Every structure is written in structure tokens, then in C-alpha cells.
Protein 1
Amino acid sequence: MSKEYSGFPMRFAHTGVTQFAPENSLEAFSKAAELGCEGVEMDIQLSGDGEIIVTHNDNLAYMTFEEHRDSLRALTAQQIKQFDIPYRNALKLKYPPYPWTEHFGGRRMITPPDYVENRVTHLITMPEFDEWLATVDYDLTVEVEFKCTGMCPRMDEILAKSKNVSRYILFSGNWDVLEEMQEHYRKNGKPEGLRLGANIRFINDTTMDFVRRSDLWEVGLNNEAFTKEDVEMFEKMGIKVFSNLGDYPEWWQQICDMGVTGFKTNYPDAYTEWWAAKI
């Protein structure tokens, strides 16, 4: 952990630092490492030629602001990488909007005075991200969210050549993907050091049934959807708890008091400032 922040939870920059660069971009992840975040969370999809692309949606319209009717599955990785991703898709608010108690998704946009209209970046592949991660000089943990089925075989090929296996937590919030992931690694075994997670969001009979029959290092739970007793329950099962967002000081205080392991935040810099002022 950074010298400025020496307590839990681990700060996971949700899709990177999106006040600085478009989400899931190498620039956004690099900024998270520059800030000393303990982790980043990223999303992955599959291209038409079977490569893993670091992006949230299965089409390009979301990132390019242009109408693209073709899904990523209709394009090769090289075709996908040619599309410009404008920085106006980033540059979200540095601080969460007020009032602090407001529940929000952190997706509001701003246009700062020094904004450069033609600044762009490009989507990257998972092998390219893995190559960058090897250059990070501290133990940056990476939550990799599978957004579709069918990616485990290609991920295995990437991990077989990776120096970063123990840095990764593979997870999803999609139940079909989670079942596929668990079955794949039951049959094929996990690479040494690899961890699996599940974004279950809420605690109920269905989600706990999945948890009990699965190999999990962590579970993701929505803000205000769990208690300290729930954290202790999962700890007894050998499972860590990650909070899904909840970017307001009242919840920040609660997750510190509850001792959660990780916190996915759209505002890692603002959270760190809050922490520094609190101590």
C-alpha cells in the first residue's frame, strides 16, 4: 500500500482512474498505479477472432460516441483497436456529486477548460494489458470481470505466458459466466496463484448456494447490502468481501469499520483525500 494510505480497504480503481482517461484504457490504469492504488478493476469481452478485448460493452458505440451496429464478435482484434476512443468519454467529476448521501453511479461528464477536443486513445487486448502490468513495480492486484461466456480457454493461454498470474482475480456478475468459470477450473485446474471471485451483489439463498459450492477468494456485495456480521461470516468461510462502489463518506466510514478487504470506487483520489483528513 502507499505511504499515504495504510489501512483497509484496498482501493480498486473501477475501470481505472476515469477522471484522467477513458474507462478501461491503459492510460486510466496507469494513472491508478501512479496514485498507488492497491488494485484496479477491468472488464473484458471477446472479439470475432477469439482475442480478449479490455472493454465493458460488446459494441463500440459506448466508447466512440458513433453508431456501430456490429458487435465485437463481428470484428477482429486489430479492427477493434483501430477505432478512436475520444477523451471526452472520460474526465468525470474529480469528486462525487453532492450531497454526500446521494446515491449515484459516478458517470457524469465534465469538460475542463484545458480539454483537447481531438485527444484519443484506443482499446487494448488482454495480452497488452498483461505486458503493461509486468512493468508495474509494486503488487497491483487486478480484478478481471468477464462480461461474456467463452473466454476461459483464451485466458488460460494468456496466463500460461504471464508473469502476473498471482495478481489476477477472475470474476463476473453474470451467472452464466460464473457457472462456466467454476466448471472450467474444476475440470482443468487453476494456474498456481490465480484467484476466483463472484459479484453476487446481495446475500440470499440463491447466492449463498452458489458461494458454498464454488471455489472463491472473494465476493462482491453492493453498498449497504451487508453488515459487519456478514463480513465475519464470509471470513470464516475463507472468503474476502469487496464492496461495490458506494462513493460517499458515510459508506466509506462503514466499510473501514467493517473491515472489508477491497473497495471498488469511481473516485480513488477523493476517497484517499477523505481518508487522510479522517486520520
Protein 2
Amino acid sequence: MSQETLTPAVLTVTEKGVSTSRFVDALRVIARNRLALLGLFIVSVGIFAAILAPWISTHDPYEINIAGRLQAPSAQHWLGTDFLGRDTYSRIVFGARTAFIIAAGAVFLGALFGVPLGAIAGFRGRWIDSTIMRFMDAIMAFPGRLLAIALVASAGGGFTSLFIALGLGAIPSNARIVRSAVLAQKEREYVEAARMSGESDFGILFLQVLPNCLSPLLVRLSLEFAHAILAESSLSFLGLGLPPPTPSWGLMLKEVTPFLQLQPLAAFFPGLTISLIILGFNLLGDGLRDIFDPRQYER
């Protein structure tokens, strides 16, 4: 058999071996970071709770029982009840679905507009870069939480208004991160080679340059999830989020605030849930940063 016949097979095996080796190295990096594993576990529990909420809840989250209101944790109500006698555990579980849906929508909206705007600004430069980034600066001039409050207050509570309010605040940060990464990548040799081969600027940017800019973006998106969940909880606590009786962690805190002296645990568990999820996403972001750091793979 000729050498030419053997070459494709050898290359295929080699490419698969390199890909497998990189995946194994990434697993080793994340395994060394126990805090990142803890973050991954917390986030995974939250996601599974959101998906399996109808099956793992013990009560109807909307069921009112005035006679059993503000109860302490018991075998019947694992985390107690709120001021209307609704099961706190079931409402926290369904609140996870609310939090993750809103966070996913806001992060998606921020990436949908922020990533291409930042990529075009960094790749094209000149007046296009200046125009886009000055527009991003104008958005960033407003404090993110204050901008969200203004938008939600004017549009009214609901999923759509929360998506827009939280997603709009994420656009500038995504655009800036992608722009910085594109500025570093567009000077590489493979970009010049693609230009010499006659490939269009659109193909070079979105098919070659942008895939090489995903590392810092993925880290940022994991942190954006935490920020969106915290922002939604804050807006709900202020009465600007989803309307009652929608299960929402921030709304749960708001509703039991007048009854803290009677049953402080009614606010403790929703607050603890918010803190754990935010911590989980932050720890997971640190783990992703380690995975994409080339220095972690030095032997």
C-alpha cells in the first residue's frame, strides 16, 4: 500500500487523538479546582430543579392554606410555609424555573446583539468601530440596575420586559469583550492567509476569527447568568418583576418581609437559594477561566 493511501488515515487518527487529549487535559484542569467543581454541582442542581420542578415538588406552589401559614420546617413542609400557607420548598423549586428562564433569555439577548456588534467593531475599525463603541458607551453611562428599573417600570412586569431590560444591560459588556478578542485575532497569520485566498470579510470574521474568541466570552456569559438572576430577584423584591403569585425568589423575600419577626426562616431559605446559585455561577466562571488559560496546561 502506498504512502499516499496511508496519510489521510494517519491524519484522522492524529486529529482525533489531539482532540481527545485536549478534552482530557481540560477535565484534569477542572478536577484540580475543587471550588469550580462545587460551582458546577450547584448550578447543575439548580438546572435540574428547574427542569424537574413538577415532579420533585411536594405541593402545589399556588395552593393557599391560611390555617397553616408561617409554619416552621416539618416532615410535611420541608422548608416551612409562607404568609399564605404555601409550601416554601415547592415555590423555591418552581422559582428556579422562573430564574433560569429569565436569565437564559437575558443572556441570549445580550449575546445576540453584543457579540456581532463587538465583532464588527473590532474587525472593521475606523469610523464603524468608533460609532458602535460610542453607542455602547452611551448605554453604559446609565447604571445597569437603574436602567433595568426604568425599563421595567415603563413597560410593566412580565417575562418580555425583563428579557429586554436585563439583556440590554448585557450588550455593552459582551461587545467590549468580543471587540478586544477580535482586535487580537485579526492580526494573526491565518487571517492574512484567508484574505489572500479570496475569502470574504464576512466569512473570515464569523467563520474563522469569531470561533477563536469564544473563550473569554463563555466566561463572561457564565457570570452574566449570575448577574441576571440577581437582577431579576432584586426587581421582584422591589415589586417590578413578575406579578404575584408567580414563584420567584425575590418575590418570596418581598412577601414575607413584614413577617420576619414571626417566622424568619420564611425569608432565610429563598435568600440562601439566591446566594448559593450566584456563588455557583461565579465559581463555575472561575473554572471556565482556568480551562481556557494556556498556562494551566504547562507540564
Protein 3
Amino acid sequence: MKVIFAGTPLFAADALGALIKANHQIVAVLTQPDRPAGRGMKSIASPVKLLAQQHHLIVMQPQTLKNSEIQMQLRQLNADVMVVAAYGLILPKAVLDIPRFGCLNIHASLLPRWRGAAPIQRALLAGDKETGITIMQMDAGLDTGDMLLKESLLINTDETAASLHDKLSALGARSIAKVLELLPHGQLMAVKQNDNEACYAAKINKSEAAIDWHRPAVQIDRMIRAFNPSPGAFTQHQDWLLKIWHAKVVADKNVRTAKIGEIVSVDRSSITVACGEGALQITVVQKPGGKKLNVADFLTGNPLRPGEVFDTVAASVNAHD
């Protein structure tokens, strides 16, 4: 099939790679303009652009798809379908109507659950037991189009946003390849979404990553996993912030008499903290300007003792990168 591909991050690059491998004719690749990133703020190409260049594909990086010039260029490509994955630009109706089979979106949830920008993180925060990929026919709404294919997977109890992203990225690539194989033959049935079952996966705000130790340990554990690798859950100790990258819920009898946020025990490999309900055993942390460290290495230069208390008030959102 003649395909226009629109996407930006690694999640989308995996899908583009699957379509290239399946020998579809990629007539153009749309991706976000290069952005400054890193400490030097150098202009960085997206993973989709880099992959497209490796395969000598036409790359287009418009600031918007709303002007008539870019729409005319897309029409002239005579594409059968446009595949969209984490692109980052709104597709107006004029663009949605261009390809013969319309525009298909690869969405990282089991729609209608978790429509919106951050379905992976929201699924983890909510404690969902499963998630998956939905390939849907795009319309003018936000992830409201008819569903062509749904593929599910279980969420492990130690799943992070990073590990779940990678699983869904691979699943999305396989799913869109399957859909494009079936689409020309009329072997897919479009299923309307039940709006009554919909919920919205709002974009993650860094302030959400500030740990409130009044919460149950189970919820804080979900936060730590959902915000790994970004923005990173953090707490405040004295006058500095501490990012927490790995922890697990544990039973500790000392919690019964401890203050909220109090360190109840410290050993060579972990720091155990009292929560609003239960306790959290922390094993990987990071100070501002430092590297991620296991607790054994961290405590060598940063001694923490039972009885010290992590700040339970929402910490400053200016957490270190």
C-alpha cells in the first residue's frame, strides 16, 4: 500500500520500521520539527526522522497541517492510507479525508479507556491490570474514532512506564502491520467506541511527581513506576530533593508508631519509609546533579538514619533533570 506515515518518538519509529519491513510504499514521513535538547540544547532530530533518513524516505516537518499548501502536497502523494503514531500535531478534517482508507492511529491503550496524551502513565497510576494497543480510524474527536483492531497485554506488578512503553511499542508495530495487510481486502470490522466507558489520560504535569507520604504505599509505588523514566517521582529531605527510581511495598511492624514519611529502617540495600498506609522500601535514588545510585552506594556519601522524615508537603516542582 502507498502509506503516509506521521509520528515522532521511538514508539512511532518502531511502527514505521514494521511498515518498511512489510514492504509498504512509504510515500512520505511526517514528523515534528527538530527540537533543542540536552545540556547543550542542540537541535535533535526525532527517532522517526532518523529512521526515515536511513531508508532514504521523503521527510516533511511542517509546523502545522492546517494550511492549504501542506494539504495540497499530501493530496498529490495519492496515498492509500495515513498511519499516525504519537505525531504531536492535530490532523484537520481536510487531512483526515485525503487518503483512500483515511487515517489510522496507533493508540497505546484499550480504547475507550485512556483517550489522550498519557495512556501508559495513567494506566499504571490507576493500577490497571491490563492495557494494550488500539488501531482506530481517526475522526475529528480526541481518540474517538471507530476501532479496527485491539490487542491486549497484562501489566506486571513491577512494570514501569519505560518497560510498558517498550512492550506496547512492539505490539503497536505488529498490530498496524496486521491491519494494513487486512485493510485492502475488507477483512476488518469497524467497531464504535462506547463513550460511557471513556476516560481521559491527561498529559503528565511534573508537579504530580511530588510524593505525598500520606498516600498508601501501594499508590506511591504506582507513582514511582509511572514516572520512570520521566519526570521521576521525588521527595524533599531537608533542603534538597531526592528522586526515587525503584521501590516496593513492604510490611514493617515499626510503621505502626512512625510518623508519616519517617524513615523506619536503613540497611545496606534499602531505606524503608512509613506511608499513610503501609511502608515503602526504596532501593534506587538520585540527588540533584548526581547519577542514579542503588541505596548502598548512595548512603556512603549521604547517610540517612531511622527517625529522619521526608517532607510530606508537596515538594517544589523544580525537580532536577
